[in-house]
Design a protein that fits this description.
Elements (H helix, E strand, L loop, with lengths): L1 H63 L1 E5 L14 E5 L14 E5 L13 H12 L9 E8 L4 E4 L6 E3 L2 E3 L15 E4 L4 E5 L21 E2 L3 E10 L5 E2 L17
Antiparallel strand pairs: 1-2, 2-11, 3-4, 3-11, 4-9, 5-6, 5-8, 6-7, 9-10, 11-12
């Protein structure tokens, strides 16, 4: 009797255990798959948020501190070549300092090198501006990179009997000029108004600079307030990575002007 009861009890309990086993296994597999998808989704979401945060940080950094600038032309050869990416120091002139002779500067040429343009597609311009700020696209058509040759108050003349530019009566030897280039094939004499700059490219025969705007409103002068920053470092290609050669030494003997 005890044996039959035990068998009967086992017979009743076995199906229940058999039903619970598969159900538990199915639930476990389903739960595992669901949690797996949830984990992947969470990982993608975290990666996306991290990417957005990094992009915002880089844009803010480029807007206020250092901005990559893609060189689009030959006007600054051999100092800068097409495709180079310079790092523009935006803090260089924010604490009372102003551009000096010999500085390589990036500036907004609107109103001096180019006329005011009607507004285009704001979305397209914003996207291009973001890529440009990260050094992934060519700069805006209104942005230029040139070397400062004259500051406010300077008397700039081209050229002396040796073919050199004279500033405030002092002839300047410019070691950064492109080999074979004259300091300028166009004779000129100008006095730089206070608060403005006279700028020229290092590859003088290939550079459209202040000389090309002499007869236009503003006379080719770039307002200091339009300077975006000073090109201090070469970030790409890595084979030429480092600080840009300092051109200020060529101008050390020049006095006068707004900087003495």
């Amino acid at each position: 009797m005890d044996t039959e009861a035990e068998l009967t009890q086992r017979g009743h309990s076995s199906p229940e255990q058999g039903e619970e086993g598969p159900r538990s296994a199915f639930s476990g597999r389903f739960s595992g798959r669901f949690s797996g998808w949830g984990g992947r989704s969470s990982s993608w979401r975290r990666a996306g948020l991290l990417g957005v945060a990094c992009t915002v940080f880089l844009l803010l950094f480029a807007d206020f501190v250092v901005q990559p600038f893609l060189i689009p032309s030959r006007s600054m050869e051999p100092t800068l070549k097409v495709g180079d990416r310079v790092l523009v120091n935006k803090l260089a002139y924010r604490f009372g300092q102003e551009p000096k002779r010999g500085d390589v500067v990036v500036f907004d040429g609107t109103g001096s090198f180019v006329r005011e343009r009607p507004a285009g597609n704001p979305v397209g311009e914003a996207v291009h501006g973001a890529f440009s700020a990260l050094g992934l696209a060519e700069p805006a058509e209104t942005d230029f990179v040139k070397r400062v040759v004259g500051v406010g108050g300077d008397d700039v003349v081209c050229c002396d009997v040796a073919g050199r530019i004279k500033v405030n009566g002092v002839a300047v030897d410019e070691p950064y000029l492109h080999p074979g280039d004259a300091p300028s094939a166009v004779p000129f004499r100008i006095v730089v108004p206070l608060g403005t700059l006279w700028v020229m490219g290092d590859h003088r025969s290939q550079s459209r600079d202040s000389r090309d705007h002499l007869g236009e409103p503003g006379g080719g002068m770039v307002p200091v307030e339009k300077v975006i920053g000073r090109a201090d470092w070469l970030g790409w290609p890595v084979t030429r990575w480092g600080s840009l050669p300092d051109g200020a030494g060529a101008w050390s003997r020049v006095g006068g002007g707004s900087h003495g």
